[in-house]
């Protein structure tokens, strides 16, 4: 009998238990004060929990875990969904944010890449763009 089937093992799996979305991602930061300034004041995230090593922030369905680390300045590989990457680009340029990539087309939609105050690269993709299946 399979571990998760108390009824005798005659269950056939289809899509039960498979991933549906990305729930949260971790971003290494040097200090909570610096991270809060960038992610909350600039990008509009709100703190919903914290402990001595992590600050948990959310904006809509996007959850980031800002974790104190000595290893900062990385490409996080995180693609946050935005309504319009061109609007985000213009808004963050006005705030002197450094961009690694101007908005461009890609297989997942229009995206842009920028650095947070710790030099971490974050990507932003048009959430209304192409649907990946």
Report how far the terminal alpha carbons are from each other: 33 Å
Note the run of SSEs as H and E.
Answer: EHEEEEHEEE
Number of helices: 2
Fold-level CATH name: 2,3-Dihydroxybiphenyl 1,2-Dioxygenase, domain 1
The SS-based structural class is: alpha/beta
CATH H-level superfamily title: 2,3-Dihydroxybiphenyl 1,2-Dioxygenase, domain 1
Write down the CATH class: Alpha Beta
Mean pLDDT: 89
Radius of gyration: 18 Å
Helix content: 10-25%
Strand content: 35-45%
Could you give the order of strands across the largest sheet?
Answer: 1-4-3-2
Low-pLDDT windows of residues: none
Approximate shape = globular
The largest sheet, given as strand count, sense and whether it forms a barrel, is: 4 strands, mixed
**How many domains comprise the coordinates?**
1
CATH architectural label: Roll
What can be said about this structure in brief?
This protein is an alpha/beta fold and 133 residues long.
Describe what this molecule looks like in 3D.
This protein has helices at residues 32-42, 85-94, and strands spanning 25-29, 46-50, 54-59, 62-68, 75-82, 99-104, 111-115, 121-126. The longest helix is centred in the N-terminal third of the chain and has 11 residues, at 32-42. A hairpin with a 6-residue loop joins strand 6 (99-104) and strand 7. With 133 residues, the protein is α/β, with parallel strands linked by helices. 16% of the residues lie in helices and 36% in strands. It has a single domain (25-126), classed as 2,3-Dihydroxybiphenyl 1,2-Dioxygenase, domain 1, CATH 3.10.180. The model has no long low-confidence stretch (mean pLDDT 89). The strands form 2 sheets. A 4-stranded mixed sheet has the order 1-4-3-2, with helices on one face. It has a 4-stranded mixed sheet with strand order 5-8-7-6, with helices on one face.
């Amino acid at each position: 009998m399979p571990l998760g089937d108390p009824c005798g093992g005659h269950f056939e799996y289809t899509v039960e238990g498979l991933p549906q979305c990305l729930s949260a991602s971790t971003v290494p930061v040097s200090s909570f004060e610096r991270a809060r300034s960038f992610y909350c004041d600039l990008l509009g995230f709100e703190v919903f929990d914290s402990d001595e090593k992590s600050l948990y922030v959310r904006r809509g369905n996007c959850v980031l875990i800002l974790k104190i680390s000595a290893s900062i300045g990385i490409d996080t590989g995180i693609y946050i969904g935005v309504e319009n990457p061109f609007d985000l680009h213009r808004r963050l340029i006005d705030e002197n944010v450094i961009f690694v990539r101007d908005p461009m087309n890609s297989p997942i939609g229009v995206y842009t890449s920028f650095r947070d105050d710790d030099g971490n690269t974050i990507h932003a993709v048009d959430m209304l763009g192409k649907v990946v299946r």
